[in-house]
Structures are given as structure tokens and as C-alpha cells.
Amino acid sequence: MLRALSPTEQRGVALGFIMKEQRETAARATVSTPSTPRVESLKLHVNSYVGREGEPLLRWLVEVMPWRASKELGNEFRSRAEFLDLQQGKHDVHAYAQRARYLVSNIVTNPIDEATKVVTFMKGLKDGPVKTFLFREYPSTLESAITLAMQEEFSLRQAKLHANVPRPMPRPMVKPSGGPEPMDLSSATVAGS
């Protein structure tokens, strides 16, 4: 049907269709129950800076700054959620502590209180002697909890290292069987004296 029309007429038909759809959508929006408007996400495309001649760095930075700001909007919320659900998993205590520190450092506007930080850190540790030690000591700050956990893990590694060192076995005494006996030199004297 549209193929028979000229390009100008095709544009007119398409424009009429779009206008009709917009009117119907607006009419439905006024009739429907009010709800909170959903924020539509904004996708920004920023070309990478290559440094070619004539490519201004300042222009690239002007493009990058809004992109970076939009990335950081949900960062604090994500960091809070990730920290509160943080688990040690297969990581050692040091890597787990570094991740916890990083996530806590991202939470600025409404910081988490120290008791929650400590409990969340201790709860996320693997079950074992480090976690048991921390629950026995119950530190008051996140940094003291991290320090105690790393010291305890170090102590455990040292204990395992020394436990796995093979001990030298005493050499068995071989009793000569019917052969010559070794000479006892304790009662020997020097000749000519």
C-alpha cells in the first residue's frame, strides 16, 4: 500500500501514524492510575582518546566527565549492598579485607556504623579458626578486626609451616655381627712418654 505512494506521501502517512500513536498514549496516560514515573536510563557513548594530531584532549574530557558522573550515581548504593553481602569465599583474609575496605570507602553520604561494619566483616569470613578467634575477641572497629584476622591467619600459616617440616630421624645403631669391633681410643696413651 505504501509502495504505491511517493516518498513525500509516505512521510506524511508515517507522520500521521506517529501523531495518532502519541495522542493515544497521552490519552491513556491521563486515564490510567497515577504511578511513580520510571527513570529511563541514559546511554552515553564516548569515543576513546587516541591522541591523533588535531584531536583535542579537552574536548574528549568534556565528553568523559558526564559519562563518569553518571557511572558514579549508583556506585554508593551498589557498594553498600555488596559490602553487606560480602563473603570471603576462596580468597585469603588479606584480599577479603582489601575488598571490604574498598567498598566501605565508597560509602560516603550515609556511612555505615562501626558495629555493623565489624559484624558484616566477621560474618563474611569462612568458618574456621580465624572467624572463631574474632568472635572471641570481638573487636570494636573494622580496622582492628582486619588486623586481628590477618594476624591470626599469619599465625595459623606459620604453625602449619612448622608442623609440615620433616624432623630428622636418629640414625639406627648398627651392631656389628661377628666382625671386628671398633677400637676404644679413650684409654689409649701416647708412646714414648
Automatic annotation (TrEMBL):
Pfam families: Retrotrans_gag. Residues 166-193 are annotated as: Disordered. Residues 78-127 form the Retrotransposon gag domain. InterPro entries: Retrotrans_gag_dom. This is Retrotransposon gag domain-containing protein. The lineage of its organism: Eukaryota, Sar, Stramenopiles, Oomycota, Peronosporomycetes.
